[in-house]
Specification:
By secondary structure, the protein is of the alpha/beta class. Helices cover 50% and strands 16% of the residues. It has one domain: Rossmann fold. Helix 5 links the parallel strand 4 and strand 5. It is globular.
Length: 154
């Protein structure tokens, strides 16, 4: 399957450059990978429902509307993915990332979690559903290289 193009969905934390590190690493290895992701501009993700469909009087319904609009993209792209990588950072609660991980696991899509060692206990159930748990973007690139090419990176 190393001649085929792979699709990898990159979910989770949006405040660091982990996505770019993985994308650049895959390009450097010349891996046949297309990367997909949710909207990573925080304000756009928060405001999409209200801007497109109309403002709401209560924050609950504004957030609800935005979440549903974002779910159109997220669910569609996760369903297209061959692999889902979910990054959990320490600074922010990433409920959406946990939901994406659960959605991928429920669909049977191979899941890689990416997180710091400090989150080992908090992530035990999600890591239990993952097929691999990485602690840095370079490990994700090595995982992709191995599963795509069948060759162990040295």
């Amino acid at each position: 399957m190393n001649d085929a193009s792979w699709t990898v969905y990159l979910s989770g934390e949006i405040h660091t450059d982990w996505r770019e590190q993985i994308i650049d690493g895959a390009k450097a290895k010349k891996l046949p990978v297309a990367f997909l992701s949710p909207v990573t501009v925080h304000e756009d993700s928060d405001d999409c429902g209200a801007v497109i469909l109309g403002e709401e009087d209560k924050a609950l319904w504004r957030d609800h509307k935005g979440a549903k609009v974002n779910a159109i993209r997220t669910r569609t792209l996760i369903q297209r993915a061959d692999i889902v990588v979910v990054r959990f950072g320490e600074k922010y609660r990433q409920w959406n990332a946990a939901f994406d991980a659960g959605f991928a696991a429920a669909m049977g899509t191979p899941l890689i979690t990416l997180r710091d060692d400090a989150l080992t206990h908090a992530m035990k159930e999600i890591d239990g559903a993952a097929l691999a748990t990485a602690t840095g973007p370079a490990q994700v690139v090595k995982l992709l290289e191995y599963v795509i090419t069948g060759r162990l990176p040295r």
